[in-house]
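Bumping with the actual sequence this time:
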Amino acid sequence: MKLIARKKILAELKKAVERTPVTALLGPRQCGKTTLSRELNQTLAGKFFDLEDPRDINRLENPMLTLEREAGYVIIDEVQKKPELFEILRVLVDRPENTMRVLLLGSASPHLMKKAAESLAGRISFVDLSGFNIGEIGAEHSSQLWERGGFPRSYLAKDTESSFAWRNDFIRTFLERDIPQLGINIPAETLRRFWTMVAHYHGQVWNAAEFARSLGNSETAARNYLDILSGAYMVRQLPPWFENLKKRQVKSPKIYIRDSGILHALLSLSSFDDILSHPKLGASWEGFVVEQIFSLADSRDIYFWATHAGAELDLLLFKHGKRYGFEIKYSDAPRTSKSMRSAVSDLGLEQLYIVCPGLDNYPLDNKISVLAINDLTKILSVI
């Protein structure tokens, strides 16, 4: 399989490893965590333990005895299979003579994150990894990335049919094997039904009551399912931004399937033509661009904004004390709207970009401009 350089996330990971004695690289299965850690280990020359390998499981049968002799870098893959390691690592890295640096790889779950944060508070950095982004694969390949999603084996598959088959297999394996391994006891068919419902509500504001009615279950159960898929990096809950404006503002999150390829598989869209003719075309494009911005922007202060009167902004980014807005339109010739002008005025935006799949960038007025997806990486690097 072709190796695609992931320089930005690799540099972020190197800084985290140098900054704290323990670093956790978290993300969904098959997103490239092991490949990235092995690339990093070419310079670290550390010990590598894979907790899906019976030999390494045996080597860590007595983890305190094995790890206390290490003085350099240690990488432990699939750490969620041995959560008791967190307490042991706390003892080891707190030793005055400690020189060990530990990189933990794991599929995220709310339980895992909570246990790691509690056991290693003040000693651990978290780095999130998702699939490929347009900065890594090149903007000229953005259409294929949108269609297939960013999981390496899906994006790099030899053809569209193979990519679609891999994604369907991934969904089944995630539900039938990965979720139970995270200690979550929910029938696979129930969670698949909920996940498919989220796909049909992709890009809409979360409504627990509506999901509960459709599932024939409680709002608490629906919320629990959403949190499980969010914690496993399958669903994005985009938080709302609200402030003291004289307008009633939406205060529930928007929900998205994080990987566009997985979204298309859940909607049974097996080709690019299927996507272009589907009612969720605009929502699919919106979710794809939202994930690109999260992956490329050096900021986690990202929200959406909407009022009950109808004004809205797909994405609000805070950076260096300034506010930038993004409207996401699958259109060759987008225009300004009353809602956009309201967002610029009410939120005090430095600039509002309308991200579209075209090739040209041009201003629509002093504060609003059209931005081609191919130049998204460039704009996010300079604002």
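The tokens above came from a reply further down the thread. The chain is about 45% helix and 20% strand.
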